[in-house]
UniProtKB/TrEMBL annotation:
Pathway: Carbohydrate metabolism; galactose metabolism. It catalyses: UDP-alpha-D-glucose = UDP-alpha-D-galactose. Belongs to the NAD(P)-dependent epimerase/dehydratase family. This is UDP-glucose 4-epimerase. CDD domains: UDP_G4E_1_SDR_e (cd05247). The keyword Isomerase applies. Keywords: Carbohydrate metabolism, Galactose metabolism, Isomerase, NAD. Homodimer. It comes from Lysinibacillus boronitolerans JCM 21713 = 10a = NBRC 103108. InterPro entries: Epimerase_deHydtase, NAD(P)-bd_dom_sf, UDP_G4E. Its EC number is 5.1.3.2. Its cofactor is NAD(+).
Length: 325
């Protein structure tokens, strides 16, 4: 059995659905602070609990002794908020994660797939970003994720923990069947914000700067479909069962799209005009962030299946269903 911590959230719920489709036995653990109970399939056992409470984690492993692997998604993930409230991030993303690792080991569970981030790299030295790029995060969110990668290194050496750390670029898109999708409160991700304009939920989308060193002056980012991410987690679990070495892997498309290209593609997909206004740059926004996932392809046999049009189309189908009135 695989325990998915944070399995009612955006990436977690898509991974749970994918694992079930592949015939895996899954249990979800989530405090529902940002997740949605209705995103968990009816046939999947659900444990409402918080990593801050050791008794809740003990309860999970005591009730499901067949757990052999953990996938850990539970984290706060707003970069701006992490700068304003670093204590919240260090407590939840670091202290609570260590409590999870300690409880796992106490129950002889040594396999974990960890949801990391490209934010551990900070400003890249080269593009596309490979795993060789120095990890110098520039905000507390990125630092908390890097800290847990380092903790897992030490736990592996001392206690036999086996892990795969997956460093995502920009997760996007939604379930092909439209059953689950991207639903954050508040929403901060570009594609759902753009679709909010298309559907009439907001008047305009803000473009933070049009004077970057890119072909159209707007920031370029690497977008990866959430189902492609789910597939990578499935492959990472399989890897842990067959190998003894740990892995740290980037997950991205290897292609970048500018903010204006996202808006233009959304207009084509929705066949609706999307108004935007150009505002000042945000502090700390690099011009380009594009990841190389060659190592994930080589080691896991992982290959992204969804292009930008499919990412936006699945997101649009979900958006209309959820917010279309």
């Amino acid at each position: 059995m695989i325990a998915v911590i944070g399995g009612a959230g955006y990436i977690g719920s898509h991974t749970v659905k994918y694992l079930v489709q592949q015939g895996k036995e899954v249990v979800v653990f989530d405090n529902l602070s940002t997740g949605h109970r209705e995103f968990v399939p009816e046939q999947v056992p659900f444990v409402e609990g918080d990593l801050a409470r050791k008794v809740d984690i003990e309860n999970l492993f005591n009730h499901y002794p067949q757990i052999h692997t953990v996938i850990h998604f539970a984290a706060f993930a707003y970069v701006g908020e992490s700068v304003i409230q670093p204590a919240k991030y260090y407590q939840n993303n670091v202290v609570n994660s260590i409590q999870l690792l300690d409880t796992m080991l106490a129950h002889n569970v040594t396999n974990i797939v960890f949801s990391s981030t490209c934010a551990t790299y900070g400003n890249p030295l080269e593009l596309p970003i490979t795993e060789r790029n120095p990890q110098k995060p520039i905000n507390p969110y990125g630092r908390t994720k890097l800290m847990i990668e380092q903790v897992m290194d030490d736990y592996s050496h001392a206690y036999g923990l086996k892990y795969v750390a997956l460093r995502y670029f920009n997760a996007a898109g939604a379930d092909v069947e439209g059953e689950i999708g991207e639903w954050h409160e508040p929403e901060s991700h570009l594609i759902p914000l753009v679709l909010d304009v298309a559907i009439g939920k907001r008047q305009t989308i803000s473009v933070f700067g049009d004077d970057f060193d890119t072909h159209d002056g707007t920031c370029i980012r690497d977008y990866i479909h959430v189902i492609d991410l789910a597939d990578a987690h499935y492959r990472a679990v399989d890897y842990l069962h067959k190998n003894t070495s740990n892995l740290k892997l980037n997950l991205g498309n290897g292609e970048g799209y500018s903010v204006l290209e996202i808006i233009q593609e959304a207009e084509r997909v929705t066949n609706l005009p999307i108004q935007y206004i150009v505002t000042n740059r945000r502090e700390g926004d690099p011009a380009k962030l594009i990841g190389s996932a060659e190592k994930a392809r080589e080691v896991l046999g992982w290959q992204p299946q969804f292009n930008l049009q499919q990412i936006i189309l699945t997101a649009w189908n979900w958006h209309q269903k959820k917010f279309g009135g």
